[in-house]
Amino acid sequence: MVISVAAKGFKVERVLVDQGSSANILYGSTYRKLGLLKLKEMRGCLYGFSGEKVPIKGTVEIDTTFDEGSNARRIPVVYTVIEAEASYNIIMGRPALNRLKAVVSTYHLCMKYPTAGGVGAIWVDASIAKRCYQDSLKVGQRKVAVNTLSLELDPRCHEERERPLPVEKLKEVQVGPLNNQRTKIGTTMTKEQETELVQCLQQNSDVFAWSPQDMPGINPNFMNHKLSIVEGARPVVQKKRKQGEEKRRAVKEETEKLLKAGFIREVRYPEWLANVVMVRKANGRWRMCTDYTDLNKVCPKDPYPLPNIDRLVDNVSGYEFLSFMDAYSGYNQIIMHPGDEEKTAFITDSGAFCYKVMPFGLKNAGATYQRLMDKVFKEVIGQDIEVYVDDMVAKSEPKRHQLRLNLEKCSFGVQAGRFLGYMLAERGIEANPEKCRAVINMRSPQNVKEVQ
Question: Can you give the residue ranges of the Reverse transcriptase domain (predicted)?
Answer without folding.
Answer: 279-440
